[in-house]
Amino acid sequence: MSNAERLYHRLVVWILFLVLLLPLAVTLIYALVQEWGATILPSGFTLNWLIALWSDPRFLVALGHSLLICLGTLLFSLVLILPLMFVIAYYFPKLDVLMNILILLPFAVPPVVSSVGLMQLYSAPPFELTGTPWILIGCYFTIALPFIYRAISNNIQAINLRDLMDAAHLLGASTWKAALLVVLPNLRKGATIAVLLSFSFLIGEFVFANLLVGNRYETLQVYLYNMRNGSGHFTSALVISYFFVVLIFTWAANLLNKGKR
Fold this sequence. Notes:
It is built from 13 helices and no strands. It is mostly helical.
């Protein structure tokens, strides 16, 4: 590839990057201005909207609820899915075809339809879970399952699981000891990708959160919906804060992943 072609490709990448960044940049500017309506340029810049947002106890509680549900779901998913995937990949590899079909089922049913069915099932004893975070964790598990399964499945195929297990057995390790001390560390990259994809998707989920818990356990997206009739500057500050929460989580996960290499 010539220097001119490399320069052209870099220019195209930068143009696409700027185009994708433009909506976020405009939202950030709108969150930092005092007034911007009747004139082309804003009247002045201020941090009052961000300060008002982060001083609102209701916002902090909603953010805490979202983080608690998302992280709880991811922890539950990894603890449940990782051993299951090891058993399938090592003992029953033919079941992978069936699992690839099953993990697509959550996307086959619209969230509104699922929510109505779940409300009928879990709105009365003995499993009265509607309005509690537990029903959201269960719903979010089904949403995160395809992302986690596919990312870790690709990682398992890349590390040659059976060769690793055979080598560990030759060195005297039992099957589960080899899985814990040899295979699991090699799945760190796939697990990190799965967690990042799932977290960025779950923290923005609205339909299940609004229909199943609503204001009884207000999450970040429900809070944003409830504030939709307020100031546009305040809403822009909320969107920017949401973006930076996801960005900080992604940065922290990548930092921890690099630190373990």
